[in-house]
């Protein structure tokens, strides 16, 4: 998603790609020999039952888009590598990490972006899940200056956070997310608010249809803009091999005004196809109810 703001001859391009898995953190620990303890302690339940198993998937996808921004036709393509992992840490509490690397081509110009989201939540399988997320995104000066044809260099760093919830029915999952964020550039900052809701319907444990809608609001000192998107996608996973394929459609609409009263407008249509390799789950439904659950608050399934 790109938001272009013209004010006093100055062009500001906002590039916000979300979902990169943070670098792994590890350390070598020296553990002393534990003292002898009374056998009665073995009968007490652990405070947190940390399990060694994890579930998730690795994904490759590609999409093509066409649109009209500020009266100019645009075409583009995007491919991405995504990794998602979930781990239950005991008593219904879970941690999910979602990471993404993207390469976008827009009218012959290429750019890269990385981002990441971490979810902490409580889940009762077949009932509900509630939690919170935090995310960060990074785009370098080359990305911004190329896409906006700017004559200055600056980096972009974005942070976001919010709440999320899901409700499980026999064949349907309902979910919602809402949050806010801040985008920092060398010469301008942007505030963002977003909300997203959707449904997943299981025709079988390995065949699923998704539908979601999202709204966003961006605000800077010299501009305001609103975005709306709706998307649908179908997933199918092989029963004997942990591989799935998916494809879908997304529509996005942008509207707003800068401080001079000029309109900011745009819309786009996109088609998406991709593949996933799953681990730690037996079906699409099993993965959602006991493993990875959340989609990215910034878009994607």
Secondary structure blueprint with pairings:
Layout: E1 2-7, E2 10-15, E3 55-69, E4 72-90, E5 93-106, E6 109-124, E7 128-139, H1 141-148, E8 156-168, E9 172-185, E10 189-204, E11 207-220, E12 223-237, E13 243-258, E14 263-279, H2 284-290
Antiparallel strand pairs: 1-2, 3-4, 3-14, 4-5, 5-6, 6-7, 7-8, 8-9, 9-10, 10-11, 11-12, 12-13, 13-14
Describe the structure.
With 301 residues, the chain is mainly beta. Helices cover 5% and strands 64% of the residues. It has helices spanning 141-148, 284-290; strands spanning 2-7, 10-15, 55-69, 72-90, 93-106, 109-124, 128-139, 156-168, 172-185, 189-204, 207-220, 223-237, 243-258, 263-279. Residues 1-35, 44-52 and 143-153 have low confidence and may be disordered.
Summarize the structure.
This protein has 301 residues and is mainly beta. Helix content is 5%, strand content 64%. The chain is globular, with a radius of gyration of 21 Å.
Number of strands: 14
Q: Termini separation (Å)?
A: 16 Å
**What's the story with the biggest beta sheet?**
12 strands, antiparallel, barrel
Low-confidence stretches: 1-35, 44-52, 143-153
Mean pLDDT value? 79
Task: Report the β-strand fraction as a percent range.
Answer: over 45%
Shape: globular
The radius of gyration computed from the alpha-carbon positions, rounded to a whole number of angstroms, is 21 Å
What structural class results from the helix and strand content?
A: mainly beta
| Helix/strand order, N-terminal first | EEEEEEEHEEEEEEEH
In DSSP terms, counting alpha (H) and pi (I) runs of 4 or more, how many helices? 2
In spatial order, strands of the major sheet run: 3-4-5-6-7-8-9-10-11-12-13-14
- Percentage of residues assigned to helices: under 10%
């Amino acid at each position: 998603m790109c938001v272009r703001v013209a004010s006093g001859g100055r062009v500001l391009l906002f590039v916000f790609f979300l979902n990169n898995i943070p670098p792994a953190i590890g350390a070598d620990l020296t553990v002393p020999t534990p003292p002898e303890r009374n056998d009665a302690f073995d009968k007490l339940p652990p405070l947190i039952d940390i399990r060694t198993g994890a579930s998730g998937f690795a994904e490759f996808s590609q999409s093509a888009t066409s649109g009209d921004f500020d009266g100019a036709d645009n075409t583009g393509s995007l491919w991405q590598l995504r990794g998602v992992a979930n781990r239950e840490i005991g008593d219904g509490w879970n941690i999910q990490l979602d990471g993404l690397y993207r390469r976008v081509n827009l009218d012959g110009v290429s750019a890269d972006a990385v981002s990441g989201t971490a979810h902490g939540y409580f889940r009762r399988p077949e009932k509900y899940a509630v939690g919170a997320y935090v995310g960060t995104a990074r785009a370098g000066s080359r990305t911004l200056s190329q896409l906006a044809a700017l004559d200055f260099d600056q980096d972009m760093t974005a942070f976001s956070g919010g709440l999320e919830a899901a409700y499980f029915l026999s064949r349907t999952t309902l979910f919602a997310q809402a949050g806010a964020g801040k985008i920092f550039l060398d010469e301008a900052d942007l505030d963002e608010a977003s909300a997203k809701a959707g449904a997943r319907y299981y025709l079988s444990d390995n065949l699923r249809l998704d539908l979601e809608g999202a709204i966003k609001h961006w605000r800077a000192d010299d501009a305001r803009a609103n975005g709306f998107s709706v998307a649908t996608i179908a997933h199918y996973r092989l029963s004997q091999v942990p591989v799935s394929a998916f494809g879908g459609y997304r529509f996005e609409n942008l509207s707003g005004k800068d401080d001079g009263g000029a309109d900011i407008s745009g819309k786009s249509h996109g088609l998406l196809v991709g593949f996933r390799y799953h681990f730690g789950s037996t079906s699409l439904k099993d993965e959602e109810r006991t493993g990875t659950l959340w989609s990215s608050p910034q878009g994607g399934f």
